Amino acid sequence: VGKHVRALRDAGYSIESAAGSGYRFVSAPDAPVPAEVSRLLRTDFWVRLEGGGVTDSTNDDARRLAEAGAAEGTAVLASAQRRGRGRLGRSWTSPEGGVYLSAVLRPALRPADLGPLPLVIALGVARAIKALGASPQLKWPNDVLIDGRKVAGILLELSAEADAVRWVVAGVGVNVDALEGDAAPSATSLREAGAQAGRAQVAASVLDGIAEAYREYLGGGFGPLADEWRARDALAGREVEVRDLAGDLIASGRVTGIGPDGRLLLETRDGPVSVPTGDVTLRR
Ligand code: ATP
Q1: Is residue 226 over pLDDT 80?
Q2: Most buried in the list 58, 115, 189, 263, measured by CB within 10 Å?
């Protein structure tokens, strides 16, 4: 018993002990630890939760599990990351006080049909944040904002053959507590938005949101989700520039919305344009 109590304390559980009379459970940790998260889940999608403490990158951990054959519905959780990553080699500031998780998905789709998946995951995260009491917007392709500031970031990585996806790892970082100083100047957090849920609850809500949106996408494509996305679109009507991975301008104009395939739609000087992927900045 003493050994198990020590392990629980190491994992952040508070347990009192009194000589001769035994132990008393005081509280669970406010951290995204698998045992706490799994009892808060509503969906039956998640078959295996790992992690819960500090790691380099949950995406790296999940990739390793995926390569080793982990089933769809496996997820790695962390309470902080030492080397959190964003898109295009950017870094994701990941201090204690956030929730970091990466999910292994194995969609039976061709790589060419994965275009909307980043938007699907973002929509799942937005639903979760809504359920936690805040009002999120979406910035194409997959940033989640509150009042124009980033509250969550998403990084999708995948391994595929010519006509089959082997695995997708969908990584999500959510700012729960406010970031300190100028760690990320355009960031906000669930706390700043008035949402009070503990971190295990945040993790469970995000996992449920992703599972539901992903299942809807597999069942009916992106079409039925597109209107919900549009209702949260932070870019509609804005003047933007879209650049490719190398930083070269792909298109510049006013956003008219997103297409049924998840592409960004723009009205440019040369007429309407639809962009499959890219990096959007607002034009002043
Ligand atoms: P951008 O938000 O600049 O359009 P992006 O969508 O490609 O870029 P991500 O890959 O999701 O961004 O995240 C990386 C960027 O997010 C970083 O360059 C930094 O500007 C910002 N950032 C890093 N950590 C955080 C955080 N914890 N909260 C909010 N924003 C962050």
Answers
A1: yes
A2: 58
Check if the beta carbon of residue 51 is closer than 8 Å to that of residue 199: no
Residue 94: Cβ-neighbour burial (10 angstroms; 0-12, 13-18, 19+): buried
Is pTM beyond 0.90? Reply is yes
Nearest CA to ligand 1 atom 16: 92
Q: Report which of 125, 161, 164 is spatially closest to residue 141, judged by C-alpha positions.
A: 125
Task: Give the model's pLDDT for residue 182.
Answer: 81
CA-closest candidate to residue 48, choices 78, 76, 80: 76
Distance 153 CA to ligand 1 centre (A): 6
Q: Pocket of ligand 1, candidates 101, 139, 150, 154: which has the most ligand atoms within 8 Å of its Cβ, to mutate?
A: 150
Closest CA to 109 of 217, 203, 4: 217
**pLDDT grade, residue 88 (50/70/90)?**
confident
CA dihedral 212, 34, 130, 238 (to 10 degrees): -80
